[in-house]
Amino acid sequence: MDNKTIIGKVQERFNENVLSVDETSDMLTLTVDRTILHDLIFFLKEDANLQFNFLTTLFGIHYPEMPQPLGVIYHLHNLIQNKRIRIKTFVSIGDPTVKTLTDLFSAANWMERETYDFFGILFEGHPNLKRILNVDYLDYFPMRKEYPLEDSTREDKDDRFFGR
Amino acid sequence: MNEPRHTILNLGPTHPATHGIFQNVLTLDGEKIISTEQTIGYIHRAFEKIAERRPYYQITPLTDRLNYCSSPINNIGWHLTVEKLLGIKATKRVDYMRIIIMELARITDHLICNSVIGVDSGAMTGFIYVFQEREKVYEIYEELCGARLTTNLGRIGGFERDFSLSVINKIRKFLDHLPKVLKEFEKLLMRNRIFMDRTINVGPISAERAMNYGFTGPNLRAAGIDYDVRVTCPYCSYDDFDFQIPIGTSGDTYDRFCVRQGEIWQSLKLIRNAIDNLPEGKHFMDVPEFYLPPKQDVYNNMEALIWHFKIIMGEVDIPSGEVYHSVEGGNGELGFYLVSDGGRTPYRLHFRRPCFIYYQALPEMIKGGVLSDAILTMSSMNVIAGELDA
Fold first, then answer.
1. Which of A107, A132, A142 sits opposite B357 (nearest CB)?
2. How far apart are the C-alpha atoms of B242 and B266, rounded to whole Å?
């Protein structure tokens, strides 16, 4: 199964909702609209030829300059034909909702909780969406870029000399 | 009719039987488990956030602390990820050296897990036997990099020093001695009636459920799926070697034990093959922009001093891009997703930690069983708190 078949099948079904296709990085990368994300992954999983039956990982990413700054990245793996695919979807800060995958993959449960915990992405339909690694009373999402790692009031270190 | 009376039991966070800091709140009916609620995150150290402020070399020590039973695999996995981003192709000698170290690490990881299954079922002796052998592997690490547990071993582009004669001798001695100990260990447990009764059909999971839960590594193979990153997506010239993937059938505790035991034998074979066919050459690739120069050169050679300074201060340009690289860690597919925007630090680094993903299946696996079986199931899953919480 080559990239062309996958792209063809996906575009035929979801046409304009597939926002971009990238074959230059290490695996086929599709950026899609969040409204079709669940349907797309269901399609990739259940289609008799595609068979992306293994959810390797999913996680968030934050690009503050983009119009839709928060992203969720999914890695799926077809274990039968050994083919990997990466799906990206982006949401805005004001409405960071994506449909959950817990109905397709039990593995998505904690991965989505972790993504919520660190990026504040809300997974619609998740059975138990609460913080997992951080304390429950934390009132921000620490992996977003606006939260500096070090105390911003510190004066003994000048970042200019460290190339940051 | 009275409502059935259930007991709530807190197993953990610090309980000797959990082998790590995580909590399970069990609802029990007598000794039978009705439901389980898991709490994790007690040793969360925000590695992904810290990594966004650190140059690439300073991330290696963070990876040590993921699965600390097999740190070298994490270190080398991280270096391979960076090399993939940079487009560096390793030489055969470096590859083979890496295989030797990674397989040694896999052996220690499996030895710990399997002997602890023994301890939890009441057989302490095997644990003491194999820990003596684990010590010998740690001596090999010590000889190579000076550290034992959190090794920070290797460099981007190879190793900090070549295998000395003493290292080679130690590895060969280990290869000669371990089979004897391992046979003795297997005699103690493998066909032991008590051990078999305690582990067969305990905490089983079907192949289908295991895949749905994202199991990888020995736990997935015990359920009968022959997915091994070393074979399906070969890295480090693993495809040069002939080895088998042991698989189980029922995915229970006994199968997990046997699969790990089988993998130790395969790892021994791999190490023997690699060390016998170790190609001549240098222990690093010719990438002065990324490979830290030897310390004596830094003191005596202008070029080396410049490169040393540039690498340490993160002044070397890293190409922008995104890569995912995975290696077969001690307990499954250990993946690194790295996004670089060209700066001195990663823009985003995500660790795919195998035990974070499969540990969530525990409630399903122990439901309906008894409490003592739950302990065995947990230890046979090889959950390492450092990796769980990152």
1. A107
2. 9
